[in-house]
What does this fold into?
Amino acid sequence: MRLKNGFACILSALMICAAVGCGRRTDSGDKSEVKGGEHVKKFIARKPEKEVISLRISSDILKTIDNKSTEIGISRNELINQMIQYSLDNMDDTSDES
It folds into this structure.
């Protein structure tokens, strides 16, 4: 598996977050109710399971991430998680063995 121009995906995520703001993703679960004739999912607050890892990253990239997370108003950790999720969601499943 490879990313469609991997670095471009991460940069695209940063630009999208900067342009529209990165809200936190919520998982509303299966429960729903009908309000005003519309099927509305109920919000169920959940704390996603996360693991602590160590990551080596260049100082320049870290500065860029810190600047963007400050501009957007979210933590570095949250921005990195959202960029990783965006990249995973946009992976090209074809193998490039050239």
Remarks:
- Confidence is low (pLDDT under 50) at residues 17-30.
